[in-house]
Specification:
By secondary structure, this protein is an alpha/beta fold. It contains 6 helices and 6 strands. It is globular. Bound molecules: adenosine-5'-triphosphate and magnesium ion (MG). Magnesium ion binds next to α1.
Length: 176
């Protein structure tokens, strides 16, 4: 893995498919025997299909949630929300700098910054720890300017249409 070119990949935008794109990369990487670490910010619920799949079938993937299972009001995060995000950031820094992982996914990290749980500088510090061969994936709406500058690849998922607007609630296997 030492001769690999690790990248910084960002999935942002208001459409559906950012988290699932990152999970697709995780699947692709484990298919090659690579080691993957996923930290989900602002999520704290094991019901997600990806969490179940990782626990049952993917021993080369570690997945940790660092959030509460509750909606955070923008501008009014609780102390606990901030604490969880800070724990997630410290874990991310440890995982990235360990050099043990080919792919590190920080899911919803952009949203954690947008909601003021973490700062742009926190994220830049974490990116700076990345060994050359590790690929880092950051997902979430509203990726900040400096993070976009650091990225090697940015995909913006833009909503054209979403079934939610027609009153169709979150579906198992599609939304979670
Ligand atoms: P997914 O996890 O399905 O890949 P995502 O990571 O792109 O989606 P987020 O912005 O993280 O989406 O939003 C989380 C949840 O909100 C998902 O369950 C998703 O289906 C839903 N969602 C995403 N985009 C929209 C939208 N434009 N309108 C309504 N709900 C949405
Ligand atoms: Mg998401």
């Amino acid at each position: 893995m030492q001769n690999k070119k690790g990248l910084v990949l960002v999935y942002t935008g208001n459409g559906k498919g950012k988290t699932t794109a990152s999970l697709g990369l995780a699947l692709r990487a484990v298919g090659h025997g690579e080691k993957v670490y996923i930290i989900q910010f602002m999520k704290g619920n094991e019901k997600y299909g990806e969490v179940q799949a990782v626990r049952r079938y993917l021993p080369n993937v570690e997945l940790v949630q660092k959030g509460l299972d509750a909606f955070i009001k923008k501008g009014q995060p609780s102390l606990q929300d901030i604490k969880m995000a800070e724990e997630g950031l410290s874990l991310a820094k440890k995982v990235i700098s360990s050099g043990k992982y080919d792919l590190v996914i920080l899911d919803e990290l952009n949203v954690a910054v947008d909601y003021g749980l973490l700062t742009e500088e926190d994220i830049l510090d974490a990116i700076a720890l990345k060994p050359g061969y590790t690929t880092l994936v950051l997902t979430g709406r509203y990726a900040s300017e400096k993070i976009l500058e650091k990225a090697d690849m940015i995909s913006e998922v833009r909503e054209i249409k979403h079934h939610y607007a027609r009153g169709i609630p979150a579906q198992q296997g599609i939304e979670y």
